[in-house]
Amino acid sequence: MIDRSIRFDGTLYCDASCRVATRVGTITRYPLTAKQSFVKVRSQTKFGNEVNSQLSTLNSMTRTLTLLGTGTSMGVPMIGCDCDVCRSGNPRNQRTRTGVFVEAPEGNFLIDTPPELRIQLIREHVHRVDAVVYTHAHADHILGLDDLRIFGYKRKAPVPLYCEANVEESLRSVFSYAFIPPEQKTHQHSVPRLEFRPISVQPFELLGMTIRPFRIWHGGTPVLAYRLGNVAFCTDCKLIPDESWPLLQDLDVLILDCLWDDPHPTHLNVAEALEVVERVKPRQTYFTHVSHKLEYEATNARLPDGVELAYDGLQIPFTP
Ligand SMILES: [Zn+2]
Ligand SMILES: [Zn+2]
Ligand SMILES: [Zn+2]
Predict the structure, then answer these.
(1) 62-318 in CATH: which number?
(2) DSSP secondary structure letters along 103-127
(3) Considering the entire predicted model, what is its pTM?
(4) I need a surface site. Which of 50, 60, 125, 314 has the fewest CB within 10 A?
(5) Per-residue pLDDT tens over the stretch 159-183
């Protein structure tokens, strides 16, 4: 895990990778999430202003990306399955469908709207979503779209959906009720308020940061992966075309599709995902879109250093 921290007066102030105050020798590590009350106290000391300015610089640089779900299309546990992983009591073996919550400099956005979106956003105490960016239009990545209704209501404006033309076409067809003319709506918030923003593999600005989409292939389905600063999110991937490899260079964190050990026509398996890791050498890799065939502890024990299975709720600090 990356640790961006500043040391001041015997204290380490850390980013979101440090979630609780911990003491290591004589040093106490304080999470930035606890900084508000802590800085208030420190401000009364003669060093307070300096701490404050260093913290605000660090805070302006670092944001958090939260993995809302890390499971494959059927989720884990899978309905009706009695395997050891599906019956496991370890919460890290319980995987809702894949999606991401990103805290950007000027608001929050989602990557995809998986079927458990409401449960995921409640679990992560999310109060605000300002936009959604889509990877592709498979059911496990779009079926939570109706849960965006609350955000149109809160924003008093439509929620912008950034996606490719084929994804817009699917969303308009699957959620036809959400795109009826205003005069046909029974009342104001009966359907989600949405508006499309077409994207391609060109970088675009969103909420104070640059989003760099790049093409990956999911069998015959084109998917957009995203580079956000020093992190890349590549779900539903079987093949990375030549033009996309440069976007995977110099990563702190790679979040990569990895279904199971056997070959699959549209997803990377463990061996193939490790080949990608070997080629781009990210500092840390998390495998996502994981099936019930990969038990959390046993799989991590056999993965190389710097490669782990992701889990629902994992928070990853990044620099936009
Ligand atoms: Zn999927
Ligand atoms: Zn199972
Ligand atoms: Zn898919």
Answers:
(1) 3.60.15.10
(2) EETTEEEEE---TTHHHHHHHTT--
(3) 0.83
(4) 125
(5) 999 999 999 999 999 999 999 887 8
